[in-house]
Amino acid sequence: MSPIKPRSVIRLRRLATLVAACAALGAVAAPPALASHSQITFFEAPRDLLSSTTRHKAFLQLETLGVKALRLELHWHDVAPNANSSRRPKFNAKSPASYNWEAYDPVVAEAVRLKWKLLLTVTAPVPKWATAAKRDLITRPEDKQFEEFMTAVGLHYGSEVTWWALWNEPNIAGWLMPQWNSNGTPASPRIYRGLFQAGYAGLKAAGISSPQVLFGETSPFGEDYNFSPRFYPRSEVAPLEFMREALCLNAHYRKSSTCGELQITGYAQHPYTYPAHQGPYYRPPEQDEVTIGALPRLSNALALAARAHAIPAHLPIYLTEFGVQSKPNLLGVPLSEQAEYDAISEKIAWEDPQVVAFSQYLLTDEPPHSGLSGYRTGLETLGGGRKPLYYAWPIPLVVSRTGSGYSLWGLVRPATGVTKLRVYVEPNGSRRYRALAVVTTNASGYWTLHSTTRGSSWKVSWRSPSGAVYTGPPIGAN
What we know:
TIM Barrel, 11 helices, eight-stranded parallel sheet, alpha/beta, four-stranded antiparallel sheet
C-alpha cells in the first residue's frame, strides 16, 4: 500500500527463486477442543476508508463481515505543514493544531463509535524538512522531529488508540533509507531504533503513561548482508537480521553493552508468502526470513532476544498485515485458492499460542500503479466484484486430512458469543452437498469437528441473530 515503492517491485525478483442427526454421515460433533486463546483480527482498507466517497459503504461492509479491530497507517507527510519543502516552517510541532488531520479523523471517529479496537501505525513518507539531507521523504528521518510529531499525535488521538506501531516495514527501502551502509552492513535497523525510541518518548510526553507500542512491522523477506550495496542499495534487510541489529544483538544474540532494554508491547510482523502459490506452509530457505509458515523462527528469535535482556520476556506476536495475492497478479493464486490459503494461514496463526493478532490487508484490490498490477489481496476485485474470499472471510473453514478421516476448523467472525452453524459435505462421486453436522462454537466463535465422511469439498452456513445468512464457498481438503 506504499505510495512510495510498491511492494510488488520487491517481490518480483524472488519469483524466479521461488450433530447426532448427522452421525450417519460420519460426523462426530463433540464439544470443541480448542486452543485456550483467541486472536484479534485487524482489517486494513486504506483506499476505501480514507476516501469520503467510499467510506460509509466500506464501514457498513466491514461491520457485516464481522470486523472488530482496524489498522490505520498515518503518514506523517500527509498531515504536516509544508511537507514538500526542504525548509522547516515555523510552527509548534508538539501541538495538534499545527497539523491537518482531515483525512484521518472521520475514520478514527467511526472506529471509536463502533467500539472497534484501533492500531495506529505512524510512518513515512515524512516531511522533506524532517529528513537529514532534505532531499526526499524517507532518508534518515530526524529523531527529534519525530518525537515532537508523536507528541502531537498522542495528544490528538491518544484516548482513541489501543495500540501504536512506529513505522511500517522499516526493513524495506520504500519506507526507510538507507537500508545498507557502504561496507555492506545494515543501516536501517539502527535508524529505526532511534525513531522508535523517539516516538515512544513523544507518546510519553503526550501524557500516555504506558503506551502499548509494537516494534517491528517488518516485511517477510530480505538479505542477511549485502555483498554489493553499491549495486543493490535498495535491497531489503531480512526481518530477523533487522530485529537483531535494531536490538543491538550480534548473530549469536549477544547484546552490546551500550544499548538498554527496549520496553515494547509486542513484535509486529507481516508474514506474507510470495509467490502465493508456494502456499501457507512454505518456509523460505533463508533462516532470517519469516513467512506465515515460518513463525517459529520469530518466536525463537524473540526468546533469545529476551534472554539477552534486549526486550521483555514472553512478548506476544502481532501479525499486523497479511493477505493472499490472487490472480491476475503475477504472484497470485486462483480465487478459490486465495480463500483456502487465507483460512489456513489464519489457523496457523491461531494455533501458535504466542500470536495474539492476525490481519486482512485490503477490502478492494489496488489499482495498477507504477506499471504494476497492484496488490490483489482484497476481498473484492478492483471493479467491486466479490471474490470467494468475501464470503469465506466471515466464516473461514479449513479441512485437513487425518489418519482417520478429516479434521475441520473454523470461526464465525461476526458472532458475539456461543453460536451454532451448519457444515455441509459433497461426498466423493456426488454432485450435491449433504448436511454433515450442526456444530457449536466456543465463546470466541471458534469450532472444530472430526469427520470420517470422504468428501471432495465442504462448506459452512451460519444464520445471524438478525436473520442474515452467511454461506461460505466450497473448500477442499489439504
